[in-house]
Design goal:
The complex is a heterotrimer of chains A (about 325), B (about 300) and C (about 350). Chain A has about 325 residues and is of the alpha/beta class. Chain A is about 30% helix and about 20% strand. In chain A, helix 4 packs across helix 5, helix 4 runs parallel beside helix 7 and helix 7 runs parallel beside helix 8. The longest helix of chain A is centred in the middle third of the chain and has 16 residues. Chain C folds into two domains: about 55 residues, no CATH class; about 240 residues, MetI-like (MetI-like fold, Orthogonal Bundle), CATH 1.10.3720.10. In chain C, helix 9 runs antiparallel to helix 10 and helix 12 packs antiparallel against helix 13. Classes of the chains: A alpha/beta (about 325), B mainly alpha (about 300), C mainly alpha (about 350).
Amino acid sequence: MVRNDQPLLDVRGLSVAFRTRGHEQLSAVQELSVSIDPGGSLALVGESGSGKSVSMRALLGLLPANAVVGGSARWSGEGDVPGGTELIGLAPRAFRAIRGRQIGMVFQNAMQALNPTIPLKRQLTEHLRWHGSCTRAEAEVRAVRALGDVGIPDPERRIRMYPFQLSGGMRQRAMIAMAMVADPRLLIADEPTTAVDVTVQKQILDLLIDLRDRGTAIIMVTHDLGVARYLCEDVAVLYSGQVMESARLVDAVEDPRHPYTRGLIGSALELGDDSPLRPIGGNPPDLADRPAGCAFQPRCTAADGERCAEVQPLVRLADAREVRCWRSSHE
Amino acid sequence: MTAQHSTDSGAVGFDGVSEWGRRWRRFQRNRLALVSLAFIVVLALLAVFAEVIAPFDPNQPDFGKRLTGPFTDGNLLGTDVLGRDVFSRLLFGLRTALFIALTAELLALLCALIVGVLAGYFGGRLDQLLMAATDVMYAFPTYLFAVILATVLGRSTWSIILAIAIGSWLTQARLVRAQMIKLKTFEYVEAGRSMGAGAGTLILRYLLPNSLGPILVATSFGIPAAMLAESGLAILGLGVAPPEASLGTMITEGYKYVLVQPNLILWPFTVFALGMLAFTWVGDGIRDAFDPKDD
Amino acid sequence: MQLVVFLLRRLVRLVLSLLVVSMLTFGLLSLAPGSFGGIQAAGAGSTGLASGRTVDLTSQVQQRYGEDVPVWEQYGNWLGPAITGDLGYSYKYPESTVGALIADKLPVSLALALIAMGLALVVAIPIGILAATRRNSAWDHGSMFVVTTATAFPTYLAGILLVLIFCSWLHWLPTGGWAGPKYALLPVLALAIAPAGIMARYVRSSVLEVLREEYVVAAVAKGGSWGVVMRRHVLRNALMPLVTVAGPLLAGLVVGTIFIETIFGVPGIGGLFTQAAQVRDMPLLMGTTLTFALLLMLMNLLVDLSYAVLDPRTRSGLGLSVDPAHRSEDTTGAILEEVKP
């Protein structure tokens, strides 16, 4: 077991940029720092294009070749490597031992993330075989059990099916089973409930809660604070590739310090009080054309020209909160 | 990848002009396509001004100097088996080949547009008939059909054009039909309809302009296909009747003397092959300009 | 069960199509001025003395070839025996039946087309895969330039080019004839060049498309090495649709042998067709045309079936699935890309 004083995954100053045809770099993630403890649960919340998915893919080295990744991500899920393993720039062979086995990933759309021409059985067992952790027969037993664990009835029969033969909800569960069959320490769930309808959403969330309660750490990427609150202890709110606010989720929802967090709460269905929905006006900035100073400033209802035109540092407040807005330390 | 939901704004959208500008820029970025386009323009000019440029009457035999090599007695590219000037015949042959290919493709396109639009937009009996016809034509190789038609119609320029057009219009009609069916469910067409636009307006203002891309691409590949069909018929002995020259018949004639005087086939073949390549690359360029797969 | 229904439906369509093709061919040729009898009579008449004799001879010859009755009757007279497989005797080669002529020449053409297709596949697949995996590299640009050039040289253009290079210039190979493997080399190459180009491009774009799929990212995220992910997830799914292109291309190759056989003097069914068209040998022309049509349709059917076997999604569409409760909509129609020759 890992010592408890050390986070399971510690991301410091992660940055991702994409080289474009015109040789300029588009910065997608800037100075992202988050961490998660063993068995913890963290939500990365933000609108699409805020860099939440990109940063998680960068951690696992899943970005295309034109991505430039900087910063540090220390992984301490692997026995007793002192100080953990640095994921950024990790050699392919070492990375393969971590991907899938120690860190599992669940994608937004199971229809796209499951190979349509291969039966579930092979997709659920192949990585067990790649990692060399068990025999073919053992792998199959584990796969059937994993399918049963995610609540798929009659798993012995369904494991022989192709993805398209399952209903949408079952596909999504099967994908979670695919990630969980190798028993990872950390599960990264990238918008796992976005592509399914509301009734299935609830089931998937309950399933993830169940996993969390059994000790798997979960990072959930979502645009929906309501969904995040259902599952996660901590939250990092991302906007235009930067963390705007990070806090315990309860604190962030009950006492948001950043205007953007307030905006997100105001525009979420379940979170706000009885007051009408207040969507955030405008759109996130183009990555190639960020405003100087605070990135959120053009859409901010509380913007103040002078101070907001300066670059906003992430300010640490009491109770482990961090906010990227000069107002937060003045209120 | 990010622009998955981009609807083709064609000539209709607010930025209609800039969309065409973008396409032209994308086309220009493809150097090969640009050079090919220039080459085709040169070929077309040579064909149009054949009379002015040609130093000799292309069909005037001169039995005194048969099968001479290039640069002899003022015959730039030599003479053929009847002593006719190869360079002059090349110009007129190019003209015939381009005329046949362009006319056949335009004719096929016209039929395809009319039938495809009607079948795709209105559906019904005509549509069923079109689909049944394409089904049968799938079993009837275009070339076989063209050969039989050419046998039936004879060897005049127009009968060859007709044979090629009849052989190729169905596939294009199917393409237009598919475009119509796809586009007519789009929201801006629905919106236009709900605002009381008639079928004619919808087709002319919305559907056709927006299917211009695929149609243009099909045309740019249809012209070399028609050129190929012309020369193919010539090789089977069904090309334009002598003494008139076309690239196809010149290649066929030249092939008989390929070991004796390769010069005879070399020139028409080179012009033809380069023309085919140029059309292929221009077609490629147009396709990429309309449907950018990268970035 | 659904497979049987599918096959039956396709067979009915096949027979109907053959019938229409035969009517079209027969009708068109009857419309045309001139006939085999006429051509023969004209040939004989030119050596005859009086024009009166020519007319007489024409009607005699026409009677002999059954061309003196109305078109539909002629068609009926042809169709009756044809249904039982008897395509009649050739006019030009009166000593052999059309069936025997075709049976004699078809294997040569089929062998040429199949070998050319095999060659094209063997060349195209590795080129396409390498170009896709090294996208935008010098190899990618270079090979795609060559391959696009190849697509502009279908059958006889490639044939003439090869003759110019290997016969006229280098004097390595014979320009025509049919007496051993040496003579098959150029015809096969000529046939293979364009399909190889088309398929290499197809493989490249297909692999690129699959490489963008989320399930490839997912496989890497599961810890798969590049090679394993390529083999098990990318190549399998990228090469499957190649069947839909290769089928029609093969059909095109069979038709393409018409030109190749004319150029290289190969004794195949293509040459038979050309001769029949030139002298208006009706039974032979009908026989060869229908053979081509039948080959084309069988090829399409084979494509659909093999695709169904390869792709589980279509397999269930055809009713071959283990679990008939989950049938996707009919995808077979959508499979057939418009890569018609």
